[in-house]
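Changelog excerpt: complex records now keep ligands as SMILES alongside chain sequences, and the structure block spans every component. Example after the change:
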Amino acid sequence: MKLRSLLTSLSWMCLFLNTCQSREANDDKPNVVLIMVDDLGIGDLGCYGNGTMRTPHVDRLAREGVRLTQNIAAASMCTPSRSAFLTGRYPVRSGMVSDTEVRVITTLGDCSGLPLNETTFAALLKKQGYTTGLMGKWHQGLNCQSRSDHCHHPHNYGFDYFYGMPLSLTEPCWPDPSRDTELAIESKIWLCVQLVAIAVLTFTIGKLSCWVSVPWSLILSMVLFIFLLSYFWFSSYTSPLYWDCLLMRDHEITEQPMKAERAGSIMVKEAVSFLERNRKGPFLLFFSFLHVHTPLPTTTEFIGTSKHGLYGDHVQEMDSMLGKILDALDDFGLRDHTLVYFTSDHGGHLEARLGHAQLGGWNGIYKGGKGMGGWEGGIRVPGLVRWPGKLPAGKVIEEPTSLMDILPTVAALAGATVPQDRVIDGRDLMPLLRGDTQRSEHEFLFHYCGVYLHAVRWHPKDSEAVWKAHYVTPVFQPPGALACYETIFCQCSGKLVTSHNPPLLFDLSRDPSESTPLMRDTEPLYDLVIRTVAAAVKRHKESIKPIHQQLSGSREGKVWLKPCCGVFPFCLCDKEGNSSATSSSWEGTMESGRRNALSDTQGMNLRVNKLHYHLQLL
Ligand SMILES: *[C@@H]1O[C@H](CO)[C@@H](O)[C@H](O)[C@H]1NC(C)=O
Ligand SMILES: *[C@@H]1O[C@H](CO)[C@@H](O)[C@H](O)[C@H]1NC(C)=O
Ligand SMILES: *[C@@H]1O[C@H](CO)[C@@H](O)[C@H](O)[C@H]1NC(C)=O
């Protein structure tokens, strides 16, 4: 009897403990929301010292969480930086690097992409029972062999749900509004009319030739006609607006071409409904903004709201969208149980300008920007981490951190182990964020430009110094400029770079703007630093296994890889219907938005470019 009651109470206790444990285990798995802005400069945000830009929601994250001031991207271009973010590894390890001028995936006709044996944070968390979603920009490839094999689709990298652009926003995605309505009709009609005409002509000639010999003029006009037809067909096939500016929901193309201006608000809706569906958690949401990349498609609501032209308006629109996501977290009671991380894939694009209007971001006191491998402005990005109750509010951490740290950090939070069969370059950030340790685990960080190592950062364990040695720097042009205005992007190799032997040396703790290189005669530690960094480079290079470089060599876009919504070659579609904005009001918004956004001189530029648009869009 006694034994029995003991057993019963024991089993009750077990049950109790069990439930406690499983509840705790659930509590141990926080939700994760990762927010990445495209091309945002560290100097564009209020909380990083911009007094004239209004970014209240980003600033709120800084107030309620930890602000990182030395948060470093692994590359200064989208595709490689995002590969590193997703995998926690330098892009040179996964082969997401290039030895040519083109360092990103530029078309959906490109078969390169993140290798399938790379493991993303999404895949790790999915295994731990997380529901995983990606909204927005992917830019890690799409097809391998046919227009719909989707071998590099986010689904194959651990994301359960995808809504967004498989590629990236580019200039043609927000076309000249006066052409827009015609376009949709035109391309379809043109093809139909010409196909019918050619059929009729062939038939007639066939008939005629039975009775009379066909006149040369008819044959000539036929040839001319076929030539024109193929010209129009070919140029429409190479038009990025149709073939690259498209949106997908999971495997379905929802808009081709996309309506760039309304994409952001659909993304926010998608994100909010994802949060609502998964409020029981645990979930991982990677919200990958199309903002603030050119051509800055902004809604009328935000045009003229900033002190910094169209670019400023667009940043403020991004901030307001962030606000909607943060509000949704509050509304669904998810706030205290969700880690929110906010960053940019790399620095602002200094060379993006139209006339005198700056269309790219501002990197504050840091030298250089997007596309420059070593200079701080290209790689030092915002980094905000909020987890109420678990992380201190309003804390500032000045130690070096990396975007590659996110994978090990969220893996640890979810109870996953990082892959053991490969080098992971990121480090778990939690001890540093919580204040358990004061020092970053990154003693060295390597700054690549494509496949080339341009600079190395050394933060010695026992000192406040942050040494940076530059082996290669880009040649700015025109002479005297602080960016590569003549080529839009700086180069990584060849004639437009300078090699430094001995390397240019700076101490960022004393000279964050990298303005005055240290000299051997005046810096007592000069030789020691150069030697130590060289030894670190040697060890690092030894740890890199040779691998197929996905982005190297010539990568012609292959026409048969380009996705098509509908029956080829009639690929136009808009399945979003009226769910987010009516198409007529969208066109109105876009047109007036564009008109207001561009000053007279810019408007003139636009008109000058119109012929170009016509040709390109046909
Ligand atoms: C704020 O950001 C804008 C837009 O990038 C930039 O033009 C301006 O110089 C920045 N201001 C400061 C004080 O950093
Ligand atoms: C992935 O596969 C490639 C090609 O077989 C190989 O070189 C690479 O080391 C593999 N990567 C990992 C992380 O296993
Ligand atoms: C979309 O909205 C427009 C204008 O409000 C309306 O005329 C049209 O019927 C709607 N279309 C659908 C499919 O709901």
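Confidence is low (pLDDT under 50) at residues 14-26, 579-593, 598-618. Residues 577-578, 582, 584 surround 2-acetamido-2-deoxy-beta-D-glucopyranose (ligand 3) (CB under 6 Å).
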